[in-house]
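Student: Please help interpret what follows.
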Amino acid sequence: MSESLWHQLKKHQKVKGEMPASDQDETENIWYIRLIQGLAGWLAAIFLMGFLGLGIAGLFEHGAAMMVLGLVINVAAYGYYKIDRNSDFFEQMVLAFSLTGQFLFAFGLFVLFDFKSRHWLVVVGFYQLLLMWVMNHYLHRFLSAWFAIIALFWGFESLVYSGVGSALVGAVFVWLWLDKCGWQAERNFYEPIAYALGLSLLQLNV
């Protein structure tokens, strides 16, 4: 019930006292409802991307076109997350589309580099860092940080074999957890990055 309706009823002496608290928030926070909404979002995105893929199959031979399409999809995802709408269905659907845009951008670079050298991985790594910085979504930020580390490490092979990369990741990981993740104002930004660094450390040292 809206607050205006409650005041009207109170004015006509149909109700008394203060408006009771709404149980809408409790309903929205039920985990299995949110899970179903999230899965439905991914399913919808998969079907939409399947239809889209049938129409753009020829683009896989043109690297620049794939990069442009990937950028457009990621910009659209950024616009949605900037609005900060509270919908698990649309959040997960937009996440799936954004991941598709990242794949198109990365594969487009791979084609442009004629499937040679590792320089395209460095570009992808910095692109993922940009997405990590601007995307206002917890899981998206985690995945972008994780993808960025993987791409940069494979782009600069010396980071893998020398051990310098693991030391840098470990140092940033410790700094984030000790200095940044404890403050609520900064936690939503730094915590997914810290988790991505922790996962990367496990990968690099197993």
In short: DSSP finds ten helices and no strands in the chain.
